[in-house]
Amino acid sequence: MEIPTPRGSLSGDLMLPRGANAVVAFAHGSGSSRFSPRNRAVADILVGRGLGTLLVDLLTEEEGERDEITAELRFDIPLIGTRMVSVVDRLTSDTRTRHMPIGLFGASTGAAAALIAAAARPETVRAVVSRGGRPDLAAETLPRVRAATLLLVGGADPEVLRLNRQALKRMRAPVRELVVIEGATHLFEEPGALERVAALASAWFVDHLS
């Protein structure tokens, strides 16, 4: 799937299993891409639960090449937040997905982009899951998020856990929850940690996108 933006097109990989009635778009963290093995592992679990997934690069190809050298765009939260809004709008206009409720999965800085998009499209985005996210980077928009929001944080990631607890207090979404994955660090590389994330995320999306 190509997602048009004023500065060029974004590339995305759309997977729609037979009978899918909802779709989850992924916002990757700083320095990552739609080929992130961790997010693809989570996406595979969602597809197995009958959910569509869209893994998308939030930078154009040219921007991505420049960012590999300068790292100047990966932390441009307003930019990637705007790009995530474009992703949501593309899903609502595509004939394959326009009838589907939309969820967003954000990792690290991508969680801020997902929350910005959820706040900008409250009638469209129904659920958000953040994995080791930085919702504090979207602090001004947090009170406007209405989507059911699940914050997943590693218990061995104390600074991010502190920031997520603060962000949760700023949120006004009717359904919001923070779950600590005990023993997990920021990248959830410990045995079983990512599987726990995938199980919790898939259950959240199934519950709130059905």
Write down the overall mean pLDDT: 92
According to CATH, what is the topology?
Rossmann fold
Structural class: alpha/beta
SSE order: EEEHEHHEHEEHEH
Short description:
This protein is an alpha/beta fold.
Q: What is the element layout, followed by pairings?
A:
Elements: E1 2-5, E2 8-15, E3 23-27, H1 37-48, E4 52-56, H2 61-70, H3 77-93, E5 102-107, H4 109-120, E6 125-131, E7 148-154, H5 158-170, E8 176-181, H6 193-209
Helix pairs in contact: 1-6, 3-4
Describe this structure in words.
By secondary structure, the protein is α/β, with parallel strands linked by helices. It has one domain: Alpha/Beta hydrolase fold, catalytic domain (Rossmann fold, 3-Layer(aba) Sandwich). It has helices at residues 37-48, 61-70, 77-93, 109-120, 158-170, 193-209, and strands at residues 2-5, 8-15, 23-27, 52-56, 102-107, 125-131, 148-154, 176-181. Helix 4 (109-120) links the parallel strand 5 (102-107) and strand 6. Helix 1 packs across helix 6 and helix 3 packs across helix 4 (109-120). The protein is globular and about 40 Å long.
Provide tags for this entry.
single chain; 210 residues; alpha/beta; Rossmann fold; 8-stranded mixed β-sheet; 8 strands; 39% helix
